[in-house]
Design brief:
The complex is a heterodimer of chains A (about 170) and B (about 325). Chain A is an alpha+beta fold and about 170 residues long. Chain A is built from five helices and eight strands. Classes of the chains: A alpha+beta (about 170), B mainly beta (about 325).
């Protein structure tokens, strides 16, 4: 009984800080495996189909996609990355610009925004203010070789989490 | 001289650096998920000695079920065959390439369904290596009369594996497969005919000639391809009223018809050029020539043309944006 009460009280205080007045502005993806414009067009049309995407522009020579998000709409970075895979290609890196307001962060720090949780791993800065580029480091969000560096930390972070919790949690760095 | 030209072309493509949208072979890459495409194919050659034009055409619908699984269904037609074998087989197997023999009608010949599954995908910046397996099954409505099978001409099944490497503007792909044709039966006349089982190996090279750098999705792409098609197959077998029918008596008649019924093997080369318009529509044209022996499915030179259109799922305006 005491144990249940203790957990209940603890649960009330164990929420992730919600970042207010914040939003995703844009994302930049390096697309792997592309060389011709027909394939690039398949990727661009998939990105443009996402309801929260205002505009997607894919540079045909560098294969870098810049995605601008609609203001006031819930942004789902997972769907952005999945759109590239749907077109038959993969992602070399995923970055997104996020507006912070004097936000203190640390290693393992988690913040919530629009129903998703974002956990920092080894952030280079401790106070974030204004437009900040978040690098997404989950599997499939960057090259396999680069992911292997983060893999042990991410696996430890996901240890014991349910599938639903894991799907709502992104790992990011600066 | 022609062989030297082809060899020079191969070295040039390898030393240069395309594309894997091959006019003949399937690459290991799959169709984007949820994206349909339609492909028209046309082939033409002159039959000898009749000098009659033989035409073949097909329409193929392609759809990306998932990013790894692509389905296709084709309908094919030509004036290559009669509706059924004639009662006088002896006259048919001696004379059907002569001008005096009745003209073949244009008709729908077969339906072909296929599935391709990409099981390996190693992507890098402007490069990828992919492997896939492909299976196809066909229902034919006509009597094919040669040892070398072709899905659509024959009812049958086909299985292959494909490996494709793309590095910047150069792509190379290897396909190895086995085609097992089913027996054609004409119960009203008591005939059965079976083409030989076929093993094939295709090696395809592709190179993007222009543009060297893109400025827009509207840029015209010009890709060059060289494809080597190799096959060997068993002899054709036929029965009449349940008894084996021998083709040996036709050995001294039309050599081409006789050879087309025997086991064989060949390598032919198919150089071709491809134009891609607005990043959605491919137009390809080329010619097939023999290098080692020859195919008896067609005469040489055989010209081919195909048009392939992808229907990408645009949310907004259909006009591709400039970068």
């Amino acid at each position: 009984m005491y144990s249940f009460f203790f957990r209940f009280i603890l649960g009330l205080f164990c929420f992730f800080p919600v970042v207010s007045k914040a939003q995703f502005i844009s994302a930049t993806l390096g697309i792997n495996g592309l060389t011709c414009s027909m394939c690039s067009y398949a990727v661009q049309t998939e990105l443009e189909r996402l309801p929260f995407v205002e505009k997607a522009t894919l540079n045909l020579n560098t294969n870098i996609a810049i995605i601008l998000f609609k203001t006031g709409q819930k942004v789902n970075i997972r769907q952005v990355v999945e759109a590239v895979y749907k077109a038959g290609f993969s992602v070399g890196y995923t970055e997104a610009d996020f507006i912070f307001n004097e936000q203190e962060v640390s290693d393992q720090f988690i913040f919530s925004y629009d129903g998703f949780h974002y956990q920092f791993l080894k952030p280079a800065q401790l106070v974030l203010n204004g437009k900040t580029t978040l690098k997404f480091i989950d599997k499939k969000y960057l090259r396999k070789k680069a992911y292997s560096f983060w893999e042990p930390m991410i696996k430890e972070s996901l240890n014991g989490k349910t599938k639903a919790d894991a799907e709502n949690l992104y790992h990011v760095t600066l | 001289m022609i062989r030297l030209l082809f060899i020079a072309l191969i070295f040039w493509t390898v030393s240069a650096k395309a594309q894997e949208l091959y006019p003949y072979a399937e690459a290991a890459s799959t169709q984007a998920k949820g994206v349909p495409a339609v492909r028209f194919t046309y082939e033409n050659y002159k039959e000898l000695p009749s000098q009659r034009a033989r035409n073949y055409g097909g329409v193929r619908l392609i759809y990306g079920i998932t990013e790894k699984l692509t389905a296709g269904i084709s309908i094919t037609g030509s004036n290559h065959h009669l509706k059924k074998f004639p009662a006088d087989l002896s006259y048919y197997f001696q004379k059907h390439h002569q001008k005096t023999f009745q003209q073949n009608p244009y008709q729908v010949e077969g339906l072909v369904a296929s599935l391709k599954y990409k099981f390996l995908n190693l992507d890098g910046h402007q490069r990828h290596f992919r492997m896939a397996v492909m299976g196809a099954a066909a229902k034919s409505f006509i009597p094919h009369d040669g040892a070398e099978p072709r899905l659509g001409d024959n009812s049958g099944v086909d299985g292959s594996w494909i490996a494709t490497l793309l590095i910047k503007r150069f792509a190379v792909s290897l396909t190895n497969g086995y085609l097992f044709p089913f027996k054609y039966k004409d119960e009203s006349q008591g005939y059965s005919f079976k083409s030989g089982n076929c093993r094939y190996l295709n090696l395809s090279f592709g190179y993007r000639l222009i543009p060297t750098a893109y400025s827009s999705y509207s840029n015209l792409n010009v890709n060059l391809y060289v494809e080597f098609i190799s096959a060997n197959y068993d002899k054709a077998t036929m029965t009449v009223n349940g008894q084996p029918y021998s083709f040996d008596v036709y050995q001294n008649a039309d050599k081409y018809i006789y050879n087309s019924l025997q086991a064989g093997g060949y390598t032919e080369v198919r150089p071709s050029i491809q134009l891609i318009f607005y990043s959605t529509t491919r137009v390809e044209m080329g010619v097939a020539s023999p290098i080692f022996n020859q195919s008896y499915l067609h005469f040489y030179p055989m010209y081919f043309l195909s048009i392939h259109k992808n229907f990408f799922r645009n949310k907004k305006a259909d006009n591709p944006k400039k970068i």
